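Course assignment 3, question 2. Fill in each field.
Student: A.L.
Task: Predict the tertiary structure for the chain below.
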Amino acid sequence: MATTAQLFEEPFDADEYIERLAWRTPGGGSKGGAEAFDPKRLLEEFENHIEELKQLDEKIQRRVEKLEHQCHREAKEFAHKVQDLQRSNQVAFQHFQELDEHISYVATKVCHLGDQLEGVNTPRQRAVEAQRLMTYFNEFLDGDLRSDVFNNPDKIKEAADIIQKLHLIAQELPFDRFADVKAKIASKYHDLERQLIQEFTAAQRRGEIGRMREVAAVLLHFKFYLNMPCLLYLTSLCLQAHVREKLDETRHTDVEQYLKNLNDLYTRTTALATKLNEFNLGSDKHTFLSKLIKSIFSSYLESYIDMEREYLRTRGAMILQRYYDSKNHQKRPIGTGSIQELKERIRQRTNLPLGPIIDTHGETFLSPELVVNLLQETRHAFERCNRLSDPSDLPKNAYSIFLLLVDHLCVDHIDYALEIGLSAIPSSDAKNANLYFLDVVQQANSIFHLFDKQFNDQLMPLISSSPKLAECLQKKKEVIEQMEVKLDTGIDRTINCMVGQMKHILATEQKKTDFRPEDENNVMIQYTTACSKVCAYVSRQVEHVRKSMDGKNVDTVLTELGVRFHRLIHEHLQQYSYSSMGGMLAICDVAEYRRCAKGFRVPLVLQLFDTLHALCNLLVVAPDNLKQVCSGEQLTNLDRNLLHAFVQLRMDYRSARLGRHFS
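Answer field:
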């Protein structure tokens, strides 16, 4: 049986089981092994093994039945235990409900008892309070104030509460019988009121805000409260003196600090007025407080915008001059009027530099730090304008601040930099020219984005509901248009310089023998040196344009550059005559130009070079196939004179009588 158990190892496989059994039986192996195969012995072994399996099955079955019986018995015992627990839980729940009902009953009784006690205690307290007041009233009636509450300064708060109540009672008594006692109570009332006012004043001088709050709470019940608007007026006089002291000392010596102080004091005063509005100062408290603030600041607010404009004008000029001084640069005067307008028109139509070319040594004369300083000053000015301007004057004042920003940032800085940048652009035939105008374009765009953001975030909320909005938008439009004209002019002249540099490379590097090699069978280069240098130069300029522009401007500039690049190569190729191998080399050059054109990512440019590549095939195609090639997909729509012009560039044009294909 132990041997049988060993044969039932996991995982069990019936075929494997029979094989292992047969293998363990002498003479039972499929190959016989050391003994010959003995089927009878194997059959006998199988029969004996079957008997063993039957015995094993019976044994296992008895064990299973025993375990099942034990499981059923334990399941019944567990079910009985669960039922006992459920019954115990139900009994506990019933006890809990009874306890909850009892607690609710007791709570109801306690609340009822509390209501009864309160009903008895309230009249008792009132009676005690009435008796206490009658005792104090008798003291005034006798004229002898014996109680400690009227003679102890530490109990002034309690005395004030008593005298205030006695004062109300005395007002209801007939004058003819109680005139003397009413006078005594009134005298004590005013005496305590005076003491409280003195205590409030002393606490204010000591800076004890908590004590001031306590005394003020007591004074609220006295007639002194009716004089609070008078107290506010007196307070405003003190505040006005403080404001005058803080502002007058800087008004004519430090305008920047004066404007900061004015804004700070006005802000804090209006915040104080907001807090005072929370108190019961009468039905017209808002109007009263507004008039008080106006009386304090009116003389300063009337001249505010003039001082703001003068400060911005001076501050902006100083920031600009400090920047140009740091560059050791003396600003060149930019012409204005009819002469400048005439020059601008000539420059726009002819694209020619007017005046001497300036070498800026790569300096753009645009400063992010300067721009941040100007915008920061203007932002503070807009904030002060919003707070200190009369609502009716706010749009007009904000517009005047905006005009100063336009003058300093857009005219004196950006426009000046564009003028200098235009003057620094070399002529189109200059050699090895450094083109810095694209750097000017990049920085000018970044600066104008900041300008536009301040326009939307700071200025628009101040003028959005006034007629000044249209004036601001028109002024902004004019500034943008003036900048765009100069940017477009500079970019166009820069592209001309790029094309001029390409011409120079081609003129110096391209040899006539490049396309008419002496040894047609020994041409080892993939493309000419001129092509390689032009492509390298163009790739650098394309990358420069991408860094300097954003949005659709990139595609617009690269399209123009790509079209002029194609025109240059097209005209350049027509200056040479081509042998068969030279034509192949021209095709290789154009293929390299086309690979360079892919970097533009402009479909039109790539299409132009695809067509040029197809045209160059006319330089090498067999004469008999010319007509077929000319009618191909890329050339069929081209002017036949253009096709003929390219065919005429072949050295075998006359000998092979190629002109007959275009007759």
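Instructor remarks: The chain has a mean pLDDT of 83. Residues 106 and 166 are 44 Å apart (CA to CA).
Grade: pending
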